[in-house]
Amino acid sequence: MVSAVAAMRRRYRELRMPVVIMAGTKDRIVDHRKHTVRLHQEIAQSALRLVPAVGHMLHYAVPEQVVDAIEASFGNPTPLRSAESTVERPQSASPETIAPAP
Hints:
This protein is an alpha+beta fold. It contains four helices and two strands. Helix 2 (32-42) links the parallel strand 1 (19-24) and strand 2 (46-51). The longest helix has 13 residues, at 63-75.
């Protein structure tokens, strides 16, 4: 699977649809700072929602936030933007500060 994911990475910039990326900040399987934030920076039209104190299975832990993110993407598509833009935060949780990549 790792080689397949690596092969897709070079095509991320070709995506032209709104993309919502969600991750729990307590995920012990995928490091949100190393992977999720980087992915958000590589996909120009993406929105990032980090959920504090939630692990890898955030769709079980906070299903209402997952549904809200999906519904928001239909009603308010993320416009194309530079990869240096701000990070979108969930409304029901306190934000976590993440520095943009150099």
